[in-house]
Amino acid sequence: MWGLWVSLRDMIATGCEDKNVRVYYLATSSDQPLKVFTGHLAKVFHVRWSPLREGILCSGSDDGTVRIWDYTQDACINVLSGHTAPVRGLMWNTEVPYLLISGSWDYTIRVWDTRDGTCLDTVYDHGADVYGLTCHQNRPFTMASCSRDSTVRLWSLTPLISPLLLNILTEQPWEKIIGNTDTAMVPGSPPLLCGKVSRDIKQELDKLSGDVRAKKLRWFSECFSPPGGSSNLWDLVFVINGQDDSLLPASYSKGVMHMKHLVKFKTSEAQELTIVKMSKFGGGIGAPSKEERLKEAAEIHLRLGQIQRYCELMVELGQWEKALSVAPGVSMKYWKKLMQRRADQLMAEDNDDAIPYCIATGDIKKLVAFFTSRGQLGPFTDRNSHTTNDVDNRQQYQSLLHNVCKELAEWYFQDGCSVLAACCHLAVDNIQLALASLIRGNELELAACLGLVVGEAANQSTAYCLELLARKYMTTPTWELSADLLQMIPDNHVLLAKLCAFYPGSVAEISQLHERCGLPSLDECKTLAEEAVRDGDLFSAVKFHLLSSEPEHALQIGVEFVKEQLSGSDWTVDSVQPILDLMSYIRTDHLILARLTKARSELLILCGYIGGLLAIRRSYYSIVPALYEYTSQLLKRREVCVPLKIEQLTVELDAWRACAQLNNIPPSESQREEFICLERRILPTEPAALVLSGADYVTGSNLPSHSDLHLSCFTGHRIQGPVFLLEDNKSAISLNDALMWAKVNPFSPLGTGLRINPF
Description:
Elements: E1 3-6, E2 11-15, E3 21-25, E4 35-37, E5 44-49, E6 56-61, E7 65-70, E8 75-81, E9 87-92, E10 99-104, E11 109-113, E12 118-123, E13 130-135, E14 142-147, E15 152-156, H1 163-169, H2 181-184, H3 196-207, H4 213-224, H5 230-240, H6 259-274, H7 290-303, H8 307-316, H9 320-326, H10 332-348, H11 354-361, H12 364-373, H13 394-414, H14 418-427, H15 431-440, H16 444-454, H17 459-472, H18 479-486, H19 493-502, H20 507-516, H21 522-535, H22 538-547, H23 552-567, H24 573-583, H25 588-591, H26 597-617, H27 624-637, H28 646-659, H29 669-682, E16 723-725, E17 732-734, H30 735-744
Antiparallel strand pairs: 1-2, 2-3, 3-4, 5-6, 6-7, 7-8, 9-10, 10-11, 11-12, 13-14, 14-15, 16-17
Helix pairs in contact: 3-4, 4-16, 5-14, 6-7, 7-8, 8-9, 9-10, 10-11, 13-14, 14-15, 15-16, 16-17, 17-18, 19-22, 21-22, 22-23, 23-24, 23-26, 24-26, 26-27, 26-29, 26-30, 27-28, 28-29
């Protein structure tokens, strides 16, 4: 017997060396199985009952297959083939009934849709046999795997069911979020939640009155997110929104706290430790001593910037040197007073060590009194009294806290923890940088939820996040979801126009989407485009031509405008990028027409060049050379007429490299002049655009990979972290590079004219 799993209905399933799966009924004294399932060609190592579908179980075998069995039908209902070695790990998802995960000796993990046997994803990161698979009890889309490569890895299944969170975000009816297993198992139907975690959330929401949207977004986003700081993030959001402190969970004080609570919570902790000064007895065997607790309290006060309290505790412990060494951080008056107290103590002990303390503070009268009391001088009276005043260091403390949080956020971000980076920014009320961290980490759904709950303070970043999410779901089954997302953005007319322009449906379907988005019909768009041309309104002309039945006219007008701009000397990125971005939404079936070859090539070249400049603006350093090389190769291979030369691109790229100090060679004077010209062109008209500058870095980017399967077509080096495959299913780049590329140039690096969608 190799594997077993006990069901809730007093049945047990076993997998055996004889290649069979047996089901036994435990409530009987018989040793004979109720069912024997045959079909595997080698020993069965693992079996699992489905937690959501009664009578359904799976088995993994050394023949490399996973079989799905229906106990009620006494039959194998599906065979999942794809592994090339024995299957050793199996796990059903506890919320989506058709999701099954398997691990194998071929070093891979596969995620299956058991409705039709489709392999939804294959993970190659382990470097040896995969054995154990499990999922988080309260976060059912976070799973863990263990392998003989001596690693345990955490994975998120959320990307495979991401429309669910968008249904919650766009406030779709419950029927599109939670359902029964029969509905969820219909082939091709969208995913539905059917497990205990989701139903518990709904029950708790049903108990609440008033506006429950914030709670709904929080609880479901935590359900979908890995346990990497999302609860901490939501605690901070609710603090910023004014939630009563008494409602904060106990775990809040153990994470990243809001600055208004930092002193409160840590001071309370320090005071608890300080209470031992008044206790007569210790805490028993093994408990920290009084001195240890006082030292711990003192360290907390010091980290909080409460230097005077630290000094007093050090004095209590008799560590005068430590107290005196930091006392000037309170004030010189306080330091002087502490020196005088030390001198008084030493004088009371008749210790000559008091002399240098009196001299250091300039208290000659006290020194004279000391000598007089010892009969070494005549009497002397001190008429002065000394008072001390605490200096308010709050402003300096908060400035320091902002700087520390910013540095800590960057450290977390570079460690692949964008959620914790966002927590650090929220701790000091920097909502824009918090959302920027989530967006740069591609935590788009979480960022959108956070932005909607925070409200007005996050409007600009929330709109950008919703726009990226809409781009993510511009695919056949989820166009309406994209429209719902864009309709949540104020002033969304142009965004909805882009969506409808790119929609690849039939004329009737396009007309229906136009109506849904409040846009004119195809014929009306053609008329409006002609009117805009006559009025000299170029942007409107391009927009309405794209929305008409003849979108190719938009290319002719728009490309000529951009070429004319680039022929001059005073153009900027912001003067041409909006038109290029709009044209990039032309329907793919039109763009790839043979008669548009020249226009298509020119559009790709212009988008590549402007994308390179945008990448410099946003500090996307890893893809700048690739964008310039992409543009140069298109110029070399395509017959086009654009005001760009390969030699000029080389000069610009070399100037950028030298002035950005990427090659450790000081720039020449001509390179400095060239770079100044570049900077003038890329300077944003809106300073807010700089908030999102900095390379994207998704979770897992810093983790080692044992896979040599994917080399970057940008660099030729092995890709570390998540991989993004291009449309030929061979060429690969890192997901980070793909995200940055798509944000500055929507077209594929392969030059095919297809848009990429790595979001």
